[in-house]
Write the structure tokens for this entry.
Amino acid sequence: MNKPENARVRTIDKVKASLEKRYAKERRFRRLGLGAVLLGLSFVLVLFMDITSKGYTAFVQTHIELEVFFDPALIDPDGTRDMDVIARADFRKIARQPLREKFPEVTGRRDKRALDSILSTGAPYQLLEMVRADPDLIGTRQMVELIADDDIDMLVKGYIDRNAAAEDRRVNDSTIAWIERLDSDGLISLNFNTRFFTNGDSREPELAGIGGAAAGSFYTLLVTLALSFPIGVAAALYLEEFAPKNRWTDLIEVNINNLAAVPSIVFGLLGLAMFINLFGLPRSAPLVGGLVLTLMTLPTIIIAGRAALKSVPPSIREAALGVGASKMQTVFQHVVPLAMPGMLTGTIIGMAQALGETAPLLMIGMVAFIVDVPGGPLDPSTVLPVQVYLWADSPERAFVERTSAAIMVLLAFLIAMNTFAVVMRRRFERRW
């Protein structure tokens, strides 16, 4: 009797030891998984912190408050208030004159040129727009906050070390002394940079904005959504509900899955060959960009649509057919309404993917230098990811700031779109 009992004890001990090893392995695996998640989140957090630390200052811009005399002899000598005459006036001299009056000791030609460079080249256009909006300003003196040059902006924001050697900084000692004097008089201010959101691209960093790229992204996504959603949903419905199950539909399904993994630049080459070279559509236009991104996002929408249709229980179809509904009525009145949240979620995810694409749009010419904000899908434009690419290649420190700020805006849009997709899916999905 003792021998069987001893054998049973040994067996129980072996089982317990085996269980302890398995539980220990499970705990180690959980710790490894948690560590991997925390490591990934830490990398993302460091990336976001680095981008934010470099780009948040782009949302404010340095301005210099000066008393400007809108000299009628220079602006409108005949007093006709003709806007064509006013547009040809020497507003550059009007913008520079307050600085000359503020620093009368500056007499040398080179020093005057350095003093004038404190203001942005956009300051004269700023005054022109003021006169266009209110011609009664002519002949008056007004305190105006004129936009500063990008080097002055970097100096005020602390990106240029004032104590560094003169040959190691872009601003000389005289300019620093002038800025310090203006600052002590309370004439230097940091204001919210509305131009960053309304202006198009510019070779001057202080005048460059994402308005043109944002409008281009909007029109491009509008074309993409108008084409990809109905085509993708229709294809998913046909393949899942109506198509016969044979080798041809199997071949189509395999090709759709393969297209979802094709590099995006291939779609750009296809768009260049088909839409531009064959059909003669305009280059660098949101219409062509939307067509290319439609081809790229269709596989994602079709796959998500089919998954949403498969998630509808067969009992819904059987019940509808059992009470006399036709196949068409069953699909469109019962199955599609239940699958629509999943389809919309896949569409939003596809749109978010399209918003962040760069390579296919580079191939169709949306990398052009576009100053004006596009007014429609046929106007030349660029998009936010391409604008980031263009600014990242610029050597000026101010463009580094604006590159990071544009990335922040782009990430905000992407996070908002993906969050909306998650919220909508959780709100409308049904548990069966």
About this structure: Residues 2-55 form the longest helix (54 residues). Strands lie at 60-69, 141-147, 188-192.
